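Recall the central idea of this unit: under ordinary conditions, the amino acid sequence of a chain determines the structure it adopts. In this exercise we apply that idea directly, starting from the sequence alone.
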Amino acid sequence: MNVVHRHGDVVHRPVSPATPAIHRLLRHLHDHGFHGAPEPRGFDSEGNEMVTFLDGAVPDALTPELRTHDLLTSAAALLRALHDASVTFRPRPDDPWLVPARHPAEVMCHGDAAQYNCVVRDGRAVGFIDFDAAHPGPRSWDVAYAVYRFAPLQGPDNPESFGTPQQQGRRVADFCRAYGPQVGAEVIDVVPDRLQALVDFMHEQASQGNEAFQRHIAEGHADLYAADIRYVRTHRDILRAAFEPS
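Accordingly, the structure predicted from this sequence is:
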């Protein structure tokens, strides 16, 4: 979505109206013991934001060697730690989050917790980057998108999909158990709503002239999300069954 530049241990990225609020959030996370996120470093002479570089690999897709229990559960634990550190963050009424707040606003959602925003070292998730879509919301809202990407909850026509519905359900259940008791089988029912909100957001941004989202829609991304919504709803009972005691 953006062109970024790295200078040593600092990454320079284009700003958005939400950047000042995101920097307050990142500072809060670090001050409250969560170091799996970039640390804000202000702005450069050209107006770009500056954040610290997180060392590791950021995979575009979950290739076979990344479809491990360790990566899955470490991503869940990392997301839980991020959420817990954000509980005491106080958004301001006029904070212009790119993505609208969702209620109940239990935590600060990353908003795009996926493998392509996950820093991996030695096969484990150690950080999340790109907080552009951060916003207040429920834990389950953020977890729903994470399991969509990490389980994944995608149909066979999606090139990133792997596993049967039963296998995907077990990976969702493993993710939620590693996250903690606040999120369980109900996350399966949140996934379609989370994806529909994404599709609606894409079309809204495209209608406002956002060329990146216009390109994504033209490339069929929104259609792929719509197909995955149908897939999750069709296999709902199989996916939820993975949460039941064996």
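Residues 215 and 239 are 32 Å apart (CA to CA).
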